[in-house]
Amino acid sequence: MAERKGDRWISIAQSLLLHAALVGVVAYGWWTFRDQTAPPPHTLAIEATVIDSHALAPAAPAPAPVKPQPVPVPEPAPEPTGPPAPTPEELAQRAKAAQDEADKAQREIEEKRRADAAEVERLAQEERAKEDKRQEEEKRQAEEKRKEEAKRVAEEKRKTEEARLRAQSEAELQHSLAAEEHVMAARSNGQLASWEAQIQARIQRAWLKPPSARTGIDCMVYVTQVPGGEVVNVRLGECNGDSAVRESIQAAAFRASPLPPPPDPALFERNLEIQFKPVD
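User: That's the sequence. What structure does it adopt?
Assistant: Structure tokens below.
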């Protein structure tokens, strides 16, 4: 982790305080040693006047003898008080002890700083874990909500589709019933029979009678057509003619294409059953 700017200034201040303490210890030792040096002895100054005895007047009585003044004894120098001045070795030991204390204090500060940084990192990790958990919970709730919404939309779509298919089926059923009723009505009034007679006549006109054909030919012809009347397939059922007659009838059905359209489109049939019975 990068060192913060405040920690760097704290380290510089502690270093300055340590050096100032060392300088103070050395100065204190030097000052104590200087004060313990004995001061020089004091001398007492005595003023005296010498008088000549001959100069005194003869008539004057002899003066009383002058008692000499005692010479004051100089006071002894005061003995030094307090602890003796430390030796250079003691000063070095004291400086080393002060340095050790400063180093210990610096180590404690560094350990405290690292512990604080670790605690800050732990708290930050806990906050990140809480944030990740919160985001994960929000994602889970959003996913559940999205699934529920998708399920609801799918259910509505399914119901709508079922309703549409049901309505379409009913409409187709109604249309089929109406078409069937229409076809039944068209057949009942003879339109279907008239259309089949037209197709039969078209095939008979297109028939090329082979030499082996006998009187009384009666064959069932199955014709498959597409819208527009184009014949796409011809198949014979029961027939009393020989192979040449049968082939000629099939060819006549193909030549009759396109077949006449029905009078009512509702009468259109893809597969027709035509009775081929030519009139001699």
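The chain has two domains: 8-32+82-188, 190-276.
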